[in-house]
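Archive entry. Fields below.
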Amino acid sequence: MLNTISLKSILQSSLIMMKSKKRLIKVSSNTDKELKNSHIAFRDEKWYTVGLLLVTVTAFCTRFYAINYPDEVVFDEVHFGKFASYYLERTYFFDLHPPFAKLLIAFAGFLAGYNGEFKFTTIGESYVKNEVPYMVYRSLSAVQGSLTVPIVYLCLKESGYTVLTCVFGACIILFDGAHVAETRLILLDATLIFFVSLSIYSYIKFTKQRLEPFSQNWWKWLFFTGVFLSCVISTKYVGVFTYLTIGCGVLFDLWSLLDYKKGYSLGYVGKHFAARFFLLILVPFLIYLNWFYIHFAILSKSGPGDNFMSSEFQETLGDSPLAAFAKEVHFNDVITMKHKETGAMLHSHLANYPLRYEDGRVSSQGQQVTAYSGEDPNNNWQVISPEGLAGVVTQGDVIRLRHVGTDGYLLTHDVASPFYPTNEEFTVVGEEKATQRWNETLFRIDPYDKKKNRPLKSKASFFKLIHVPTVVAMWTHNDQLLPDWGFNQQEVNGNKKLADESNLWVVDNIIDIAEDDPRKHYVPKEVKKLPFLTKWLELQRLMFVQNNKLSSDHPFASDPISWPFSLSGVSFWTNSESRKQIYFIGNIPGWWMEVAALGSFLGLVFADQFTRRRNCLVLTNSARSRLYYNLGFFFIGWCCHYLPFFLMSRQKFLHHYLPAHLIAAIFTAGFLEFVFTDNRTSEFKDQKTSREPNSNSSKPKETLILWLTFSSFVALLLSIIVWSFFFFAPLTYGNTGLSAEEVQQRQWLDMKLQFAK
Amino acid sequence: MSKTSLQEVPENTTELNISKGELRPFIVTSPSPQLSKSRSVTSTKEKLILASLFIFAIVIRLHNISRPDSVVFDEVHFGGFARKYILGTFFMDVHPPLAKLLFAGVGSLGGYDGDFEFKKIGDEFPENVPYVLMRYLPSVMGVGTCIMLYLTLRASGCQPVVCALTTALLIIENANVTISRFILLDSPMLFFIASTVYSFKKFQVQEPFSFQWYKTLIATGVSLGLAASSKWVGFFTVAWIGLLTIWDLWFIIGDLTVSAKKIVGHFITRAIAFLVVPTLLYLIFFAIHLEVLTKEGDGGAFMSSAFRSTLEGNAVPKQSLANVGLGSLVTIRHLNTRGGYLHSHNHLYEGGSGQQQVTLYPHIDSNNQWIVQDYNATEEPTEFVPLKDGIKIRLNHKLTSRRLHSHNLRPPVTEQDWQNEVSAYGHEGFSGDANDDFVVEIAKDLSTTEEAKQNVRAIQTVFRLRHAMTGCYLFSHEVKLPKWAYEQQEVTCATQGIKPLSYWYVETNENPFLDKEVDEMVSYPVPTFFQKVAELHARMWKINKGLTDHHVYESTPDSWPFLLRGISYWSKNHSQVYFMGNAVTWWTVTASIALFSVFLVFSILRWQRGFGFSVDPTVFNFNVQMLHYILGWLLHYLPSFLMARQLFLHHYLPSLYFGILALGHVFEIIHSYVFKNKQVVSYSIFVLFFAIALSFFQRYSPLIYAGQWTKGQCKESKILKWDFDCNSFPTHTSQYEIWASPVETSTPKEGTQSESTVGEPDVEKLGETV
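PREDICTED_STRUCTURE:
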């Protein structure tokens, strides 16, 4: 219900927008006089506010629409949700990205009062069942994603573009499937993109203060540029490219200050340089370090990231709460085994399977093996090494399990289980039989994290128990309990689908550890200290080393050359029952418009340079300064965020293009207005326009925009973008199932969608 | 070689012709006719200098060329390739063919019949191998490079005395001498690069659209083509010419005395000369390459079956039945690696399930044969049933009667979560289980005919095999299994593997219901010349990228300008060939480039602060030429940093050549500007510099000519980490006579060949799977 209402509101707001535009077009298509008035309207502060409100509200609608769906782990939420949980549990982990955005997510979880119990292990796990405040997490992303849109709007406004241009630029981001999908899930990119846009915005603000250097506003915006830049680079290292962009601007700036025609002394230029160096490099670096300081301060307990670090580093981490209870399992220990999903214990008792089941199938009539949730001495099993070893059981070992109560051995064989004709029956056989059927009593401990040769620890090490000769995993379920002959306990059988998450077991308890056994008493680890900078340097070095190792094949990795065209995307999440899926892909018409604009810009610059070399001055000076300084800056920004990817050898994904896409959106809108502005010098004007009196002197920009064509063209482009957004919305939000035909209709370019058949 | 006796030739006319335009001044680009003349060798005196330099170069480069009389360093490869050209057997190499063809040509002129195999470094040449003649080729080209350097510097505005000095420095540059004495590609390539630079510099001073202009333009294009056809490094030279052409055109466009029509002419003629001509030449040499290598050889394993089917004596099946059906006896090939056929043999995996191995095997073998069966193999088919898209089948290995099988265990080498082991499983009488079932999914966009998109047809249909139980796809990648599986290529079942590695096709096909006489047959389509060239390049590119193993004497690009380390080329009988440069020249080049860069940044900053550039024509020409040559140095040097393959010091030689050209202009500015009025000073600097360089050359020459040296001299000469082995030299040279006397030769030689002297990796070996 909620979904449909918010969808309607989006529709309505976009309709209003279309209408308002239509009205503008109507206005502009009237007489010359009115035409002039409409220009003024387009630059009226009032209209700017209306436009801003409009895009902001719509942005919130698109980002928050159906944010609760799916209520399952989607794509890389696996990573970033998990990291938030580690922060909340304060257990040490290792990741390639700097901590800022992850801390933000964790902070959201902290505010929601979450304890971080859920570890986001696989895509598709339910949030509702695990009571995760995923709405809070996702809202954090969505708020940042939504706010990016008005920032883009303001960037254009501050660059001196008309309301129409600002709205158009904002709408390219607003109605973009890639931006929407990426900024409403628990991912880092919403934060990244938000701060990229803020950096650009504050830098534009800063350059507008250039006539009043060292004024209060000048310092303010320089400071903000630095702060936001540091947030970008503290989120992901692609922030280096944002630095590069701003760096190009700053260098150009300093270069023109150095120009002798300006008449500044070297000392004065030095002051400019020092201010920028201090606020754009030094202060951001300190902020960057600060996040690491918080990172280390929070993660004070040992955790999954320990093994990456040096032993000196590991000694600074306290034991995790688990460590107090986790004990190494030795051979010949008597243990209880708990099924992870249902919480029941592996159990057996002196009762046999009935000869015949209700459906007529026959059993082996062996002793029952069940799973039972209550405490019971019959839950006790002894771990025995087939080779007669003693000492620590390591993960990956082959073991036999002796049922203590009935003195028999756990065995499974090619006999169908009570409920599942496809699964193998588990039973317990006596000593003599167990020796005869030796092989069938062998089970391998298959560790969940695939890291073999580590000691098996109670409570901590999850594993699958794989039957060695027939390769099935011990499994139980509680959706259907055994009938009276099985005392309504859970059926245990051998599952052929080894990959199922529900095959996981853990050693729950080690019974009766002797008093003199060192395992009996828990001795907390002594925590040492290391200077912060030493810890930071170690981690920083490690992050770079690991980053360079990320060069293996990934099915959804793509080549940068395909990005601007949005040729193929990434499947984030699928649900085959309802034929729903989330597919990460840009708004294809929108992306292609950007490519067209970027290409045309290059052509225009080339043509301008070429004609000027030949003494033909076609463009006015003000147009040229707009073309090179304003649009040129955005173009360089796009290049800086895109081209370096060609030199990288690590895995690359489409979402790496989003910052570049954002800057290209600002560029595209600005460029469109530029194209529809009459920028010609008087020499090159055609007769009709040049007869106008004030064509070249006063207010050149405002009088020279070709309003009618410009606004209708923008309306046309916008409607294509909006249409395409709604057309692909089922793939963006994933809340509508599609028939095979509908899926095929949306399979543009190189996209490979699920359920196309 | 006395330089002081020289008198100055006519003054250079490098004066800039600046015209006042309507809006801004511009440079008139058309050079004055005298300029070209003043920059050519015309006077008898200068011809004499050139002749004496020529003789000097011959002496240095050809001295003792027959020594060592055994295979040195990469002669292993390039001698070997010459042999294969002569025998006509197909081989694979990462370099384009021109230089190798030249060696083959010279070899066959000298009567080399391809008996000698150039197997390993240190193999002695038998009598009938014209290795001396073959070594003459790079040596003579090395001499040519020196002469080119002289002429190039003259063309870019240096005084004869400066040209002579710089040329003399190149003649005694140890690295250039060493590399041009052996059957290696670098010397021909350097010669072609040098002639490109020369013709381009000549071209720049010609009056546009004159006969000389066209002549030098075409010469530049031809030399470019030859350079690129010798080694891919030549493409960096293409980039250099390209950038300089854009630079030139920029000024031509700005020159308002040039008409628009002429500008178009400038564009088109350059495009033809610098792009079309080199491309044509490059293709022609590949055509010759393919024309000569007609027989199947050890390079065949790299190529697709379609390519191989064009080679004489190929083992590719000629024809097979088109339609594949149930009961067909097939061989299945992996499309996108050269691993070969889906293969199994009666050996078990060590580890994993311990079941029978399934691999890829490149050679034809009866263990490659599989019988296609219905997944529900209860009844034998009674008629021909085609393999439709989506059919569920089992593949029964004919010789062992085990079925292709997969299950949730990690493969032997690739222990990734998304990879499953593939084995052959089952025994007589066992009807198989669901893990044997595979679903055929035809890749419609890759299958060539309409029919092949519906049903599986041999050769024409490309398909994937999806494991019915787990949904993974039969997959293979260039990962070798351990020794117990004979290092064949790993086959796995991957859920997330990239698509191209899960494509397969049927090569041979027999079916009990079809008759080879009656039913339709198919064979590989014959690839066109361009398809062949494209495939060759795809392989060359991939192999080049894959040359990442570490080599004892490899070095990183950042060490090259400082000459931190050399390469041991050959070591035998107490003498060595150790590749290293003349440190005097080498370091001066690096220092000049660094100093000029600092100077450049400084002058640009000064310019921004209102101090103009010097308008002195000598200084102006110095700046322009330095920029050109340093750009060349950068373009040949910087790409090395992006390359992941193993790199050697000799990869710096093209850069060094540009560096030496820049060094020439540094000498020129010293001579004609700094000490213009006191040229005694510059002359004495030059003499002193040459003397130091010569003494360095002389001191290290035993390492070039495999000459006699003593342990003491050797140890004294180790300035940096130059790792030539001093222990192989005797304490006194008289020891050589004792070793040489017949009595002593009967005693076992000690340390005949240093273990570490190995050449670049053998490309052929990389491709061998078995």
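CURATOR_NOTE: The mean pLDDT of chain A is 84.
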